[in-house]
User: What shape does this take?
Amino acid sequence: LEDTLVDLRKQGRTILFSTHRMDQVEKLCDNICLVNRGKAVLNGNLREIKKRYGHNRVQIAFDGQQNGYSLQGNPLATKAEANEGYVSVELAPGASAQQLLKEVGAHSAITRFEVMEPSLEEIFIDVVGKTDA
Assistant: This one.
């Protein structure tokens, strides 16, 4: 079914697709309308929506050890979570990925530094949280 939808999309066909699976939406849709409790809470071009919600997360992989450097308590990060082979960081409001890269690079050898765009699911949860409040 997914292959058929992708083929129709490539042909320029319009398809109305309803799902709760945000990963499917990200793969198959150009334009979206997110609905919560029967009301549209967000709509438009998927790429433009994702750009509006910024890039406030980064993943950092280190060459070996972090040399004892920790992101916990760093004013540039509101959350830092160690995973297998990398650290996932949520930037503090107003902080930039470039600032964080400069600071971390001064203390550790970085093998990968990637700014992550938010998933559609994260955006939906954020929007719904604001409209339900």
Observations:
- Strands lie at 31-36, 39-45, 57-62, 77-83, 86-91, 110-116.
- The mean pLDDT is 87.
- DSSP finds five helices and six strands in the chain.
